[in-house]
Amino acid sequence: MTTATPAVRKPVAWRRVALYAGCLAALLVMLYPLAWLLATSLKPADEVIASLDLLPSSLEWSNYSTALEGVNEVSVWRLLGNSLFIAGGAVIGNVLSCSLAAYAFARLRFRFRGPLFAFMIATIMLPHHAVLIPQYILFNQLGMVNTYWPLILPKFLATEAFFVFLIVQFMRGLPRELEEAARIDGCGPFRSFFLVILPLTRPALITTAIFTFIWTWNDFFTQLIYLFSPEKFTLTLALRQFVDASSQSAFGPMFAMSVIALLPIVLFFLAFQRFLVEGMANSGVKG
């Protein structure tokens, strides 16, 4: 028995080492574009396209100073503030409206609840470009074009069916005894939602907030449609303007601004990543 134990454990140990090595190799492959972006942001102008080396021959910190100047006389801090305002408003709107809609579908009883929920789920398959023109005509008639309203207001109307479905799946797993106890204590539907259900739904809400922040921050097409004035541009729009505004290929400052635009997403994700995993695990497996 004692001689057979090492022979059994040795293949298991080697398989574990091979698994770790494979995971490390996959991690390096996924992180290489990020490393290339960071290294390219510090390369001189003649090395960005001509050189295939990952590391620059000399660090060109002037790329960041040029990027911080912004575009069209708008500083990068103004652009960053615009992006944070739009993304923050979208996060608040989605978390509030989608949680209220999810509470109605998951915990309340009303007529046509099933067909309405199925219709809401069906809107996930509706392409964004199919409703873009009607939405633009509507916001144009309301005088909201070239403002932030078209980018934030729909989020307060529970238009993101994916997040409604995500929160519904999470709420269906919560015990109804909690609401019944709150109802005995005199709480109505709204007080039960805000005092009992909403705190317990925190993982799903943080998951909604993370995805909303990332998707809104990286959104280019919608912001390009509704925003015209340079002082209202976001970092995403400024990247395109930064290249067009220069008479020569300023790739170094462009990549430097890309790094600046990427930092808030990375910090936001690192701050709430454990809630993201918990929310997806608890929401996606409940039927």
TrEMBL record:
Q: Which SUPFAM superfamilies does this UniProt record tie to the protein?
A: MetI-like (SSF161098)
Q: Name one GO cellular component term.
A: plasma membrane
The record ties this protein, via Pfam families, to: BPD_transp_1
A Gene Ontology BP annotation from the UniProt entry = transmembrane transport
Q: Where are the transmembrane segments?
A: 17-39, 84-105, 117-139, 151-171, 192-217, 250-272
Membrane topology, record value:
Multi-pass membrane protein
Matching entries from Gene3D superfamilies are given as: MetI-like
Q: What is this protein called?
A: Carbohydrate ABC transporter permease
The root-end lineage is: Bacteria, Bacillati, Actinomycetota, Actinomycetes, Kitasatosporales
